[in-house]
UniProtKB/TrEMBL annotation:
It comes from uncultured Cytophagales bacterium. SMART domains: CHRD (SM00754). Keywords: Signal. This is CHRD domain-containing protein. PROSITE patterns: CHRD (PS50933), PROKAR_LIPOPROTEIN (PS51257). Residues 1-26 form the signal peptide. The keyword Signal applies. The keyword Signal applies. Pfam families: CHRD. Residues 42-182 form the CHRD domain.
Amino acid sequence: MKNVSFAVALLAGGLLLQSCDNTAIAPDSAEQTTTTASARLGGGSYNAHLTGDQEVPSNPLAPPVVTNATGQVNLKLSADGTELYYKLIVANIETVRFAHLHLAPAGTNGPVVVDLFMPMPLVPVISPQGVLAEGVITAASLKNSLAGKTVADLVAAIEAGDVYANVHSVKYPGGELRGQLD
């Protein structure tokens, strides 16, 4: 009986191997094109570590931001390049009012181009920890100097070092956490 079981298993394995061929499976052209586009756009992932010491006060006489709060923004470009999926994570922060992406290089302030977190009604969120916001950025999400533009335009600005994330709080209305996306 042992020999019969072994013979059946051997025969089944041989049939399985015989049914497989060495034909390579190529990705369809759309998949190949989007993969190439994502690679051309810097791999399609962008991140920023947010700290208070990266804040640039709008008033030069304002004291520097002193905070134990930290944060992280992660962006992932969709395969077709028309959407950016985002996640905003914060820790040790109190009374968050808003969070945005701004258009400006490190060390300077710039206009809001994407809202990441806008509580409705406009009431601060007290002591959020972990994921504060997540969602999808599309061309319709873009505002001010990027209004009417595409996600590719936002990605180009990110890759040029000209986009930063900013988390505004009650204590620091101009921003408590900031980080340049790269």
